Amino acid sequence: MLQRVCAHGGRKTTGAGRKFAVQESRTDADIIGLRLYWVDAKKKNIASCDIDGGDITVERDLSSTTTAFGLVVIGNKAIISTWFTAKILSAYVATRNALWTEELSLPGSSELFSLVATAPSMQPPSFHPCGQEDKGGCSHLCLPTRGTSYRCACPSYGGHTLSFSAKSCEAPSELLFFTLKESGEVGFISLTGAQSHDLTLAGRSKHPSAVTYDPIEQVVYWSDVKEYVIYRASLAGGEREMFLNSSHGIGIVDGKFAFDWHLTGLLVDFTSLTWGTQSQVWMEPCTHGTE
Hints:
Organism: Pomacea canaliculata (Golden apple snail)
Shape: elongated
Largest sheet: 4 strands, antiparallel
Radius of gyration: 26 Å
InterPro entries: 6-blade_b-propeller_TolB-like, Cueball_EGF_LRP_Nidogen, LDLR_classB_rpt
Order of helices and strands: EEEEEEEEEEEEEEEEEEEEEEEEE
Protein name: EGF-like domain-containing protein
CATH topology of the largest domain: Neuraminidase
Number of helices: 0
């Protein structure tokens, strides 16, 4: 299946509702001709379609060529990389009987995969506010939407959300944390800033469930009900670290889970692997006990 999504992350669609019975290796777009090209590793060909997913055309037969992987289309020229033989070959797309010309060979290597190329002909000159020095007035990310329209956004990690002006990113003073169990994401939104479709993340794990926050140290704690672990991570970004696991008596933490900043400790209500109990976990000093 070939899908497309806008540069700003919205409107994910499948071309004209079509499902392609192919094993795609690499795709490339012809900006001028408004066509999408791909290598079909299963049917051994180069195919293309229009931007709406219609007019599917087999451009070149690759059955006599070592399995192709990478693909770049510049004008009427297709450039492919091959598995196992580690070569870069080129040929004219529209001339189906044109011979492949070897552009590069890497003897002794079998790890030549994707290709990407830049050329003026591949991207016509255009004006867009996101391409200007001030990024359309956005403090961090400027995401094109349609035409010359755009919207500002903040990085997924780093503890910043979009301010009320919808132009700049700020560290919010009021936050609402949540967990998305199926996608494994731990995120938050600002209760005072602008509405945004983007998720601001604090961390990830297999099946996050309960979540709480230390506002003094700006550290997020969350439980994972599949790994029997409590993780923590700085709101400002950085790697997560395991705080407690089953060896500390932690079981399935999916209920009460709160941070007591007066006692500097976690209040955890969990189902142990062998019994149910309520536990108070202290951070200073790093010990824990049950109640």
